[in-house]
Specification:
It contains 17 helices and 21 strands. It is α+β, with helices and mostly antiparallel strands and 555 residues long. α1 runs antiparallel to α4 and α5 crosses α13. 49% of the residues are buried. The C terminus is likely disordered. It binds adenosine-5'-diphosphate and magnesium ion (MG). The site of adenosine-5'-diphosphate (ADP) has 23 residues, from α4 and α14.
């Protein structure tokens, strides 16, 4: 090596190091966080997202916004992952998690400016996050599983600001009832909630207040044939995931016909095959058939003749849920079909609603359906997202048994405790622990901001109340007053809050660890329009500044 620099990167690759890389990443992450902040809380606004196909989504849900946004900046994507983790692990609190991640990074940037090494910041954030989660456990209130009023409040808190809010009284009760319907006491005394047994179905044309909770399943399908019966008490139900059609001859086999008779022969054979299939179904004793695949026209006709009610192309997830409701097995081969495979249920088809109602009648029948109604597709979609969040947090609350005072109360209290803890941390990490505490207070600040209140005044009032020992003092966003939010019924799942803190911290630390960005393609820092193909299969991270353009068009 005679002093020649070694070139290891391709000609087009670009590189950004140290402070440049950090600032770049922090700015990108913050841009994402800021894009969802305005939706936080009951007074948060909604966003309208228009996809490249022209599909419109109106939502207040953090994870939905970020998923629909066309983000091609790699750091920004890391923040989107925070929302996704939060959604998977807790179902609610996505905006909170992302906003805190952004604020952690913003505060980290200040520390970096003061020449504090990233490893000290990372360490401090990590310590603070652990402490914060321990403090959440300390301030959490135990929930009596019988206290449906409190559990309903958890549902209502998670619905406020969402499409579900206007009818939140009715809907929160439905959510609580649904979760209770699928809650069982396990042998070891643990409370287990199986959300798999709750199916959410949507129907347009009515209002949210007409939503209902039904035993069993609701299937959005029509009978396969007009002459089929439409109602059965205690029917035998066949669930099948194979088509009821003529079995394909070999894909590339061609049919050699020498005379018209042969064609007739061929068609007769097909008819015979279909007739056999339908006979097998009839012989098993089935009254109703839900088929995941297609049913041949002729087979539909035969089924109708046999007095069997059938629906084709039932969604796979619906079929799985139907199995829970009616019992029996999902059949994939009619040749081996037997009566044991059938489930049992009261089945009826409502012509005006165009829905099947299936209520299991067997011993093992379980499963309920939340039938959500709303005037239009956009309304029910947003309703479904809000209800999904509420189901998750109510299920957590019932099984985990702990809740927190919302409206920023828990954040201010935990921030106060983390600041106390900071005194025991030595060195520069202490500054990072304090910066973490400050970041927590973003929640009440943004809640105030979104409600058109002065965020500084609000924070000062809240801190004073907490200094006075009022652990549950939070913001009433409707009056601007500091109130006891726990008593006011603004309560949240402790599990979701813990998860929000840990995923926010992990993401912030992940971003802070990076001191070198090596991009196989362009690494421009100025906003360029994102292109559909950027960062595509080539693995290039695409325009680093592309995000600005992408979001600017949407927000
Ligand atoms: P996320 O996606 O983080 O769940 P939300 O938009 O659902 O975001 O807002 C949640 C925040 O709103 C929580 O901090 C919660 O305490 C607060 N909040 C909900 N309802 C109220 C209320 N009635 N008054 C004050 N704060 C509320
Ligand atoms: Mg929420």
């Amino acid at each position: 090596m005679g002093g020649q620099p070694m070139i290891i990167l391709g000609e087009d690759s670009q590189r950004m190091k140290d402070r440049d890389a950090q600032s770049h990443n922090i700015a990108a992450a913050q841009a994402v966080a800021e894009s969802v902040r305005s939706t936080l809380g009951p007074k948060g606004m909604d966003k309208m997202l228009v996809s490249s196909m022209g599909d419109v989504t109106v939502t207040n849900d953090g994870v939905t916004i970020l998923q629909e946004m066309d983000i091609d900046n790699p750091t920004a994507s890391m923040i989107v992952e925070v929302a996704e983790t939060q959604e998977d692990e807790a179902g609610d609190g996505t905006t909170t998690a992302v906003s805190i991640a952004g604020e952690l990074l913003k505060n980290a940037e200040d520390l970096l400016e003061q020449d504090i090494h990233p490893t000290a910041i990372i360490k401090g954030f990590h310590l603070a996050s652990e402490q914060a989660r321990a403090e959440i456990d300390n301030v959490a209130h135990e929930v009596d599983p019988e206290d449906t009023e409190l559990i309903k409040n958890v549902a209502e808190t998670s619905m406020t600001g969402k499409g579900a809010e206007l009818e939140k009284d009715v809907l929160a009760q439905l959510v609580v009832d649904a979760v209770q319907a699928v809650t069982v006491e396990a042998d070891d005394g643990e409370t287990v909630v199986d959300l798999e047994y709750i199916n959410v179905e949507t129907q347009t044309g009515s209002s949210a207040g007409d939503s209902e909770l039904l035993e069993g399943a609701v299937i959005d399908k029509d009978p396969a044939h007009a002459d089929m019966p439409t109602a059965f008490d205690d029917a035998k139900v066949l669930l099948i995931n194979e088509p009821i059609e003529v079995e394909d001859t070999d894909a590339d086999a061609s049919l050699q016909l020498d005379s018209p008779d042969q064609l007739q022969d061929f068609l007769d054979k097909e008819e015979e095959q279909l007739r056999e299939k339908v006979e097998a179904i009839a012989e098993s004793g089935a009254d109703v058939v839900f088929c995941q695949k297609g049913i041949d026209d002729l087979a539909e006709h035969f089924l109708a003749q046999e007095g069997i009610l059938a629906a084709s192309r039932v969604k796979k997830s619906d079929l799985g849920f139907l199995r829970e409701v009616v019992g029996g097995n999902v059949v994939s081969d009619l040749d081996s079909l037997s009566a044991d495979d059938l489930g049992s249920a009261d089945v009826s088809y409502d012509e005006s609603e165009e829905l099947f109602y299936v209520e299991g009648t067997g011993d093992e029948a379980h499963g309920v359906t939340l039938l959500l109604r709303g005037s239009t597709e956009h309304v029910v979609d947003e309703l479904e997202r809000g209800i999904g969040d509420a189901l998750d947090v109510v299920a957590q609350t019932v099984s985990d048994g702990r809740v927190l005072a919302g409206g920023g109360a828990v954040e201010v209290e935990v921030a106060r405790r983390v600041r106390d803890y900071a005194d025991s941390v030595s060195g520069r990490e202490q500054l990072a622990v304090e910066a973490f505490a400050d970041a927590l207070e973003l929640v009440p600040r943004v809640l105030a901001e979104n409600a058109g209140l002065d965020s500084i005044d609000t924070l000062v009032d809240l801190r004073a109340a907490h200094e006075d020992g009022d652990e549950t003092a939070g913001l009433d966003v409707f009056t601007g007053e500091v109130v006891d939010t726990y008593d006011a019924g603004v309560v949240e799942s402790a599990h979701a809050k813990r998860q929000a803190l840990s995923s926010a911290t992990e993401a912030a630390n992940l971003v802070l660890k990076i001191d070198d960005i090596i991009a196989a393609g362009d690494l421009s820092t100025e906003g360029e329009e994102p292109e559909g193909g950027a960062g595509g299969p080539g693995g290039a991270p695409g325009g680093m500044g592309g995000m600005g353009g992408g979001m600017g068009g949407m927000m």
